[in-house]
Write a structure and sequence with these properties.
Blueprint (H helix, E strand, L loop, with lengths): L7 E4 L5 H9 L4 E4 L3 H8 L10 H6 L3 E4 L10 E4 L14 H11 L7 E4 L7 H14 L8 E4 L18 E3 L4 H12 L6 E3 L3 H32 L3 H8 L21 H11 L6 H10 L1 H15 L8 E5 L15 H10 L3 E5 L5 H8 L12 E6 L4 H6 L1 H5 L2 E9 L11 E2 L1
Parallel strand pairs: 1-2, 1-4, 2-3, 4-5, 5-6, 7-8, 9-10, 9-11, 11-12, 12-13
Helix pairs in contact: 4-5, 7-9, 7-10, 11-12
């Protein structure tokens, strides 16, 4: 397939799909497809509530159109799938969005078409799960009538420095010829360059271990924080000292959520267990990271008890709800673990986050953030997310939100140790 003849469709216009569609839309005809009509209407009006793409950037993508009608995809011959791949309540991969997207494409798939997946999956998922769906709904034969590729997303929500075009892209295809077409397609917009993997399975594995490696590294630092807290040693001071060595990795303890790091390892461990191997280090790291919200509350309650402060019925302000700083992304935020644990102690919690859409917080978690915290009202304040607004407030202004006798738990090391009562 010649690059000039490609008619591109991007399926799923979230944090991954929209920036990709916009970049391609600056250079070629692209149809951005999403099942959410409200999302399509929003983008047509030139607004992106995720804040990943500005109004100006949307306008620059002159060849980008939007639709929620599956039939409109029939005009495309290359499809890029960027739908979510979450986990269910049992921490098992939920492939439903990927399967549904494959069904939608399968119904319009034609001879010679290419379907490229970007969603994070376990090695083998593209060919074992997605391709059979494409074959079933299209009646076509894989690698004879149509082809597949895999190019893992590397989007970092809220990061205005590392954008889709400035991050090196791994590509792959189901045949050597298709792999070259996929690689050339991405190379046309990725200024950082591409890396053509030897197979789809290699590309899938590369993606899933990127975040698994980060997860395990953070778990190690979280465990060190638990040890140092028992020893009465400031963890941040230790990390700063160790960080003077040139090859020390600068990870910090904390909550591990989001669409990638807190999810991707479960895709790899699911596949490992399916082939008869029980992963130990990866799952141990996951258990430790998933326990950090409860640990934070335990530390807070312990300190309140030591100060003779009434725990039951206390009021706590949790500052930050998103999974990371300076972005509105609520996916898999582990701040909810803190809120759940506080409730177990019969502690009332207000949540304040200037980045969060109230309706989305209510829909996703049943949480209604306060518009403005009440001054002098809280027995404790937990700095859970390092939004720049919180840093700019300063420790004293944040302390003014607490009662005369209160605790400030600086979970994100926003301020020097001397300005808070508790840190990880």
């Amino acid at each position: 397939m010649d690059l000039q003849n490609i008619k591109l469709g991007v399926i799923g216009l979230g944090y991954v799909g929209l920036p990709l569609a916009v970049e391609f839309g600056k250079h070629r005809s692209v149809l951005g497809f999403d099942i959410n009509q409200r999302r399509i209407d929003e983008l047509r009006s030139g607004r992106d509530h995720t804040l990943e793409v500005s109004t100006e950037e949307l306008a620059e993508a002159a060849q980008l159109g939007f639709s929620a009608q599956p039939a409109d995809l029939a005009a495309c011959n290359v499809f890029i799938v960027t739908v979510p791949t979450p986990i269910d309540e049992h921490k098992q991969p939920d492939m439903t969005p990927l399967v549904k997207a494959s069904e939608t494409i399968g119904k319009v798939l034609k001879q010679g078409d290419i379907v490229i997946y970007e969603s994070t999956v376990y090695p083998g998922a593209t060919e074992e799960v997605c391709v059979p769906v494409l074959e079933k709904f299209s009646g076509l034969k894989f690698n004879t009538d149509f082809y597949a590729g895999y190019s893992p997303e590397r989007i970092n929500p809220g990061d205005k420095e590392h954008r889709v075009t400035t991050i090196k892209k791994v590509t792959s295809g189901s045949t050597p010829e298709v792999a070259e077409v996929v690689n050339q397609l991405y190379a046309s917009i990725i200024t950082a360059g591409t890396h053509k993997a030897s197979s789809i399975r290699v590309a899938e594995a590369a993606k899933v271990i990127e975040n698994t490696q980060r997860d395990v590294n953070i778990a190690l630092i979280n465990e060190l924080a638990l040890i140092f807290n028992r020893m009465g040693i400031d963890t941040e001071a230790v990390l700063q000292a160790a960080g003077t060595k040139w090859n020390f990795l600068p990870f910090r303890p904390g909550l591990v959520g989001g669409h990638c790091i807190g999810v991707d390892p479960y895709y790899l461990t699911h596949k490992a267990q399916a082939i008869g191997y029980h992963p130990e280090i990866i799952l141990a790291g996951r258990r430790l990271n998933d326990s950090m919200g409860a640990y934070v509350v335990t530390q807070l309650v312990k300190r309140m008890t030591q100060r003779r402060m009434q725990v039951q019925g206390a009021r706590v302000l949790v500052m930050g709800l998103t999974f990371k700083e300076n972005c509105p992304d609520l996916r898999n935020t582990r701040v909810v673990d803190i809120l759940k644990e506080l409730k177990e102690y019969d502690v009332s919690a207000d949540v304040y986050d200037p980045w969060v859409d109230t309706a989305e917080a209510q829909h996703e978690y049943g949480i209604t953030p306060v518009r403005s915290p009440e001054a002098g009202a809280y027995d404790a304040v937990i700095l859970a997310v390092a939004h720049r607004e919180f840093r700019e407030m300063g420790a004293q202004a944040i302390r003014n939100l607490g009662k005369k006798e209160h605790l400030l738990y600086d979970l994100k090391y926003l301020f020097p140790a001397s300005e808070s009562d508790l840190r990880l």
